[in-house]
Amino acid sequence: MAGIKLHPELRRNLLLIAKEALHNAVKYSGSPSVAVKFETNGKHLVVEVADCGKGFDLASAKNGNGLNNIRSRAEKLGGSCEIISAPGQGTRVTARVPYK
Question: What is the pLDDT of residues 32-50, one digit of tens each?
Answer without folding.
Answer: 999 999 999 889 999 999 9
